[in-house]
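Here is the promised in-class demo. Please do not try to memorize the tokens; focus on the logic of going from shape to residues.
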């Protein structure tokens, strides 16, 4: 009986935390999204390449328990991921993982959003914030990896 009390107490604490009134400038995640995020963080480490059974689209797990779509084979190669065997999961499981755009940080601190086969510079922290991106979901890259990806129009 004692073993059941700890997990139940943890779930009650999480549900209570998620249902507290929210400040206008600090939205809290919905309960289900928060729980899914914890599950995916525990199940798939950052950098894990995943795909749904019977599908060809590849995703990479980024910090904060989200999956970012890898749109082309060229991007896969530029990120040095072509030799990683993807973890195959059910379509339902993939659908339950929150997604994020593929965001990359240069050694100099520039942040790019991958769109198709191009990298698009996010021109300022204000633009990044306006788009609602999570700074924790940005993957660090080398200059060589980023130089491999063609430039696209900046995100303003």
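The designed amino acids, position by position:
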């Amino acid at each position: 009986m004692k073993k059941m009390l700890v997990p139940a107490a943890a779930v009650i604490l999480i549900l209570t935390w998620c249902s507290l009134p929210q400040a206008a400038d600090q939205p809290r995640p919905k309960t289900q999204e928060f729980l899914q995020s914890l599950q995916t963080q525990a199940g798939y480490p950052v950098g894990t390449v995943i795909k749904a059974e019977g599908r060809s689209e590849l995703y990479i797990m980024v910090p904060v328990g989200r999956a970012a779509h890898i749109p082309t084979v060229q991007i896969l190669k530029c990120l040095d991921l072509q030799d990683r065997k993807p973890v195959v999961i059910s379509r339902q499981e993939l659908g339950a993982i929150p997604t994020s755009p593929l965001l990359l940080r240069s050694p100099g601190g520039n942040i790019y959003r991958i769109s198709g086969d191009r990298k698009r510079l996010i021109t300022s922290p204000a633009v990044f914030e306006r788009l609602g991106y999570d700074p924790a979901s940005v993957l660090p890259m080398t200059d060589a990896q980023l130089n491999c990806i063609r430039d696209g129009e900046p995100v303003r």
